[in-house]
Amino acid sequence: MKKVTVCILSLVMAVILSMTTVHAAPSGSASQAKTTASKKTSTTKKKRLNSEKKKLAAIRIAAKKKEAALKKKAEKEAQARKKAAKKKEAALKKKAEKEERARKKAAEKKAAALEKAAREQAKKDQVPEGKVSEKDQPESQQQPESQQKKATADTRQQTATSQTKKETTSTADRQETSAMAETASAKSNVLQTKISESYGAHAMGMDKLKLDCTNYKFVRPVKVAVLDTSILSGHQFFRGRTVENRIGRTSGSEWHGTICAGVIADSTPSWVSIYGYMVDSNKPETIVNAVRKAIDDGVQVISMSIAIDSGNSYVPELEKLFEEAYDKNIIMVAAAGNEKGDMGRVYPACSQYTYAVSALRQNDGRPGLIRYMSFDNRYSNYGTGISFCAPGTDIHTATNRAVDKCSHATGTSLATPHIAACFAYLKMFYPDKSNIDLFKIMKGYCVDLGKPGFDAYYGWGVPYIKNLGNDFRGKIDKRMVKITHVRKKKKELTVKVKGIKGASYALYRRNIKDDVRGWKKIKTISKGNEINVSAKKNKSFEYIVLMKRGSYEYLSEYFRK
């Protein structure tokens, strides 16, 4: 019975337990479902967030593409505007060049008319063609000496009158336009250029070269700076040319600057402009300012008849400016000084960028001849830094006492502008040459005085540039000589020119790769108009025809064969 009861109780307990298990199951399923639903919600949110991120990224990419497109469009528009501006600028430049050519043509036409008038006046003053001058007549037919003197005086008076008229005409023309003035001045003053008054300019051949440049109408402006006291720009020595005081003007203290500028004016044609820069040798900063201003003004030659006893042989700030000027191919010439000693401490002459100049004097009995000149040891400094020498004793030049007064002055200050004038000519003929090239050319024209080669008193010598114009034969008046035929057959060159009565012709040749040697005359004819010469097979040769008629010389166009 007990066993039956135990079994029944066990069975009841088992039933109760099974019922408990069955009722607990639904509670666990609900929790799992809830968890699953939560996971699904989280996944949905993540997907939505990812989708939004992708949309934002797409928007950013689209914005960047749009920005790049706008930038590209802006650049394209900017390039188009720039191209249009360049095109407009080129059109304006072309228009300006066309107007400039028209003005130049008008100026040349007017200058030709003035030159024709000058020739007609010259013919009146000279012996007519076909007649024999008094010099060439037999002694029995010559006039008495008194009559000759009177005739000479009358001729001079007529020439002076004609020159005055031409100067007045030229002045009137200059008032119209500056471009016409320069051309007219050069082309109408063929008979007006006076021989230089200084024996120094004559001894160095610059008076003849000055006349050649005028007769050949070789006009290329050159600017020369004079670092000194101010200049009396209204002096008669400076008539017909540009002379300006760019820095400072102190009335009454113009003597030294005026005598130095006078040498340059006396030695060069009127298209060499002279700019004055007032400095104080005791204040190096004034020289620094002057050199800076001269560089900015575009000068080609700087003449410095000044000296600074720096104690250290140079002024650093000024030396730096000299280097800048030298790199820009500006020639700088400086006086060696007047202490009868070594110029090694005289600055700026001792600078490595300047050409130092010592002074020469004339010896008795041989005036105006270089080979009879000598170093003036009474005052001139010397030394291994001397580059060139030039006349410096008793030089006739302008003065500040009055606009029509001249005087004689002595010193290396007077020798220096002679060398500056020489370099002005070289700049005129060879504007694109470097300082080293110009120095070599200058050496080639030097007369060696003293010991053979370089020495401490004469440097490389004194330049004699009388034939510089003949050696160069620049582009001069080409309208008067017309070449009608040029033929090269085998080894013979035939050149025909349009003949002019009373004229002779000469053919010149040069190697275009060698400017220093210049032109060489290969044949001259006095009659006819055909020149036959043997021709070398060399394409680097250039030819030109020179016509002479009376005291006038004209050149043809260059040609190669």
Commentary on this structure:
The protein has 561 residues and is α/β, with parallel strands linked by helices. It has helices at 2-125, 145-174, 178-188, 199-203, 206-215, 255-267, 284-296, 316-327, 412-429, 435-444, 468-472, and strands at residues 222-228, 243-247, 272-278, 301-304, 331-335, 355-362, 373-375, 386-391, 395-398, 406-409, 446-447, 462-463, 483-489, 492-497, 504-511, 520-525, 530-534, 541-549, 552-555. The strands form 5 sheets. Strands 1, 2, 3, 4, 5, 6, 7 and 8 form an 8-stranded mixed sheet that branches. Helix 1 packs antiparallel against helix 2 (145-174) and helix 2 (145-174) runs antiparallel to helix 3 (178-188). The termini are far apart. Residues 22-26, 124-194 and 474-479 have low confidence and may be disordered.
Ordered list of secondary-structure elements with their pairings:
Elements: H1 2-125, H2 145-174, H3 178-188, H4 199-203, H5 206-215, E1 222-228, E2 243-247, H6 255-267, E3 272-278, H7 284-296, E4 301-304, H8 316-327, E5 331-335, E6 355-362, E7 373-375, E8 386-391, E9 395-398, E10 406-409, H9 412-429, H10 435-444, E11 446-447, E12 462-463, H11 468-472, E13 483-489, E14 492-497, E15 504-511, E16 520-525, E17 530-534, E18 541-549, E19 552-555
Helix pairs in contact: 1-2, 1-3, 2-3, 6-9, 7-8
